[in-house]
Amino acid sequence: MAKAQQPLLYVFLAIPVTYLVALIGFPVFYNLVMSVQDVNLGNISSMIRPFIGLDNYREVIADPSFRKVFINSILFVGVNVVAQIVIGLSVALFFSREFPGAGLLRGLLLAAWMLPALVVGALWKWIFATEYGLANAALTSLGLVDAGVHWLSDPRIALTSVTIANIWFGMPFSMILIAAALIAIPRELYEAAALDGAGAVARFRYITLPSLTATLLAVACLVTIYTMRAFDLIYAMTQGGPLDASNVLPLLSYQFSFQQFKFGIGSAIGTFSFVIVFVVALVYVRTLKKEAVS
Amino acid sequence: MRSKRLSAGLLSVAAALSLVATTAMAAPKTVTLWHVFNLDTDMIYGGIEAFNKAQDEYRIEARVVPATSMVTELIKATATGSVPDLATLDNPVVASFSGQGTLTDLSPLVAKSEIVKPGLYFEGPWASAQWQGKTFGVPRDANTLALYYNADMFRAKGLDPDKPPRTWSELRAAAEKLRDPAKNVYGFGFSAIQAEEGVFQFLPFLTQAGGSIDKLDQPEATAALDFLVDMMKAGIISKDVINQRQYEVANTFMAGNTAIAFGGPWELPRMEKEAKFDWRLTLLPVKDDKNIAASALGGYVFVVPKGAKQPEGAFKFIEFMSDPKILNEGWKTGRLAPRTDVKVENPRWPQAYGIYREQMQSAKARGPHPQWPDISKALQTAIQEALTGAKPSAQALQDAAKKIQPILAKTPL
Amino acid sequence: MSVRIATAPRVGWPYTLIAICGVALYLFPIYWMFTSGLKTSAEIFANPPTLIPQNPTLEAFAHVFARENVLRYLRNSIAIAAPVTILTLVMGAMGAYAMSRLRNRLVDVALVTVLMLQVFPEALLATPMFIIFRALDILNTFAAVILATTSKTLAFALVVLRPMFRQVPIELEEASRVDGCNSWQTFWRIVLPLMRTPLIVVGTLAFVQAYGQFVYALTLMSDQELQPATVGIYSFVGAEYADWHRVMAFSSVFVAPVIILFLIMQRKIVAGLTAGALK
């Protein structure tokens, strides 16, 4: 790399990073401080509040719903990442065949991602309603189930239902990003491989996938963060119920902060998400290092 | 001595005059109001307009906050110290704010008021804004629950629509008869969602059974919850009520999928427009052996956050909105007056009005308690545990009692 | 360009048919949204559900247009989303380019920092953000919401654009420097044009994200006149009831302009794609 270019690059790097640190650094700090304080409505307006060490964290861990919600979050995020990438990649590959209207139809899919979470939540709540819902109407008319499935009111199924809804909501976003990366793969690579007699599977395995790795990692990272912090959809569908069966960390944090008025606990829960994402971010950056070496 | 008094009197008159003069000349002081009423037919819109016209000392500047965000926004405002002068809060949450000292004590203003007189208010609504002997809010409106029933379905199943169920056993018997799985009709519906609404709809049963929130480990509470659990097991109540908000229960009623449903007066405008059948209202049933009439109390309270710049102006508006003439308008959107001296003449939906007004007599306020959300959460969990079959009612309620008792031991109801 | 089409694998209309069916099925909930705007709220909850509105009424749409200042709401949404898009693209392109070219610890730290700052939901960040913008004295302006929202979209742009910049061959840059371009000119004249497609994609996605902004708008602007459309949509959901047919009607009106915009952009993306192929 030419040295002459470096100063400009550092300026380029500094601008957005400074912006983000300046704008979100204080808010994040504000929350971390609250997580080690005893915060209530009476003292929330001053930053000087009783310091209680890790009491909030202890209380969070002792809370019977926390463990359940923690596991829910991991499952919710994990399944979302895998499903959005696998489905997103398949759909993007399908649309990369240049048939008439491919671009238009692919673009239309993004409409799902444009809706406000409140609306998506309401729509899926209707689809999953036991009595008047479409899901059961479709399944029973196809003869797949005899009695209606209690998609959202059965604690064993609720998490699956909100996960399905969220995959539907987020997949087009992942798909579009993957599609943009697919477009950038030089066509000559495929043509050369085809001349060498490589089949479709081999071309996917040796050309498409390696070219996409960086983007797939980036998308996985984004989906992790997005699903880790989003709760509007679940809030609109189940409010986390029944019995926290579909609750996730950000929603639990919101409920503690804004419904139970236990701000310190809410922030402490936020810190747990923080730790999870920190691990994911570290893994992500490490894989990037490998990418740089190869 | 006498002349001194006289001159003092003159001085004060002069001062008063100059005050009048300056207020008359000065631009009106802005009173910011955050409210949640999104129906443009709500009485608050007419009230604001009339208030701004009637005097020029204050001007109300209103902001509609989406109802689900009101508490969140007020918390943020409290945290940043940028509060509105006046806000409307759902009554069970008022104590959480007042108990932590974040609301202005209105007692001195109420003591001087000609309009806001504690004796004129229904007990429940007034109590919901009190904390430790002080008044932290003035009820804006009130509501309570009653039974909606589908008279056409009653007739079709050979029940007399003029004799709706009056007791738990009659309710259950009627609901069982009305249930029609072939037509997707459930006999009875209520909201059991994991939220405050679920508690709101369960409390009437609890009180009717002779139980109370501080005695959830008693058999009365178990009887109340078992009554509902048994009906769900028998297929009279849909399992989906676990995830239905109140209006969603009302929707299933309006769509003809629920024959009898719990509901508040706020459903009336929609009911009138969309329920294409003979629907009627009746009082909530009583438990056969107890005969305790009971319902839960809902409604909004005007509060003045601490740090408000215009508390006097805010209170002037509260007084204005508490005028029976304005409160009379409330019923158009299904809001009852919180005052006993307001009686709507020739009300819209006269039958419903009569029922709800009678039911108001037995409507009990939730709390008031600063930790009501915690208490409520414990009960929500118990209701859901019992209805999903995760725990027997008695066990679920005992677990809830164990969470609630320490809270009440620290700060009694 | 014509050459390119001739050599493209001819999969043709059968694929189009499959795609139309698939997309239609996938977007069925959106059809549901639109038709729910034409239903009465009782029919929305009818059992069994009605695929086609039985008594379609434009009442909800009429209400949204007549009473709700829908145009003001949409204008506000766009007034927030457009500057966010530009800020995101400018800073995102700079940062991502730097991250793709620099290879040291600092970049790792920067990337992890950027990601970590994205963890907390807006609900928890809005209060301290309010404090910042009050100090800057820009509460109740679009600027506050734009700056706050960009903090979300910018991180996304950095993460997505970084690998895309890496695909630009470094030899091109070296060649341009040999031709006497300085580093800014290289970035501006050589690298950025090659990034047109990714930038359009990221810009579109950032726009959509900002268009759907709710929490920051609600908290940072108390002025009713400035609120974006999402706040209008949420305000139909009352404490005791929700006018779902109106929510759905408003929501349909809300997404329509963006879908149209996207379809226009889609043509550009295709154009960018073919331009890239010609190089």
From TrEMBL, chain A:
Residue intervals passing through the bilayer: 7-30, 74-95, 107-127, 164-186, 206-228, 263-285
Membrane topology note: Multi-pass membrane protein
Originating species: Chelatococcus asaccharovorans
Record-linked PANTHER family: BLR7065 PROTEIN (PTHR43005), SPERMIDINE_PUTRESCINE TRANSPORT SYSTEM PERMEASE PROTEIN (PTHR43005:SF1)
Keywords tagged on the record: Cell membrane, Membrane, Transmembrane, Transmembrane helix, Transport
Subcellular location: Cell membrane
CDD domains linked: TM_PBP2
Main location: membrane
Full protein name: Carbohydrate ABC transporter membrane protein 1 (CUT1 family)
A single cellular component GO annotation: plasma membrane
Automatic annotation (TrEMBL), chain B:
Coiled-coil stretches: none
Entry annotated with the keyword S-adenosyl-L-methionine: no
Entry keywords, A to Z: Periplasm, Signal, Transport
Source domain of life: Bacteria
InterPro entries: SBP
A GO BP entry: maltose transport
Signal peptide: 1-26
GO molecular function: maltose binding
Keyword Transport: yes
Pfam families: SBP_bac_1 (PF01547)
Listed CDD domains: PBP2_UgpB (cd14748)
Gene3D superfamilies assigned to the protein according to its UniProt record, in alphabetical order: Periplasmic binding protein-like II
Cellular compartments per GO CC: ATP-binding cassette (ABC) transporter complex, substrate-binding subunit-containing
Similarity field: Belongs to the bacterial solute-binding protein 1 family.
Stated name of the protein: Carbohydrate ABC transporter substrate-binding protein (CUT1 family)
From TrEMBL, chain C:
Keywords: Cell membrane, Membrane, Transmembrane, Transmembrane helix, Transport
Transmembrane segments: 12-34, 78-97, 109-132, 138-161, 199-218, 244-264
Membrane topology: Multi-pass membrane protein
ABC transmembrane type-1 domain boundaries: 74-265
InterPro entries hit by this protein: BP-dep_ABC_trans_perm (IPR050901), MetI-like (IPR000515), MetI-like_sf (IPR035906)
Gene3D superfamilies: MetI-like (1.10.3720.10)
Subcellular location: Cell membrane
Any one cellular-component term (Gene Ontology): plasma membrane
Pfam families to which the protein is assigned, alphabetical: BPD_transp_1
Recorded family membership: Belongs to the binding-protein-dependent transport system permease family.
One of the protein's GO biological processes: transmembrane transport
Protein name (Swiss-Prot/TrEMBL): Carbohydrate ABC transporter membrane protein 2 (CUT1 family)
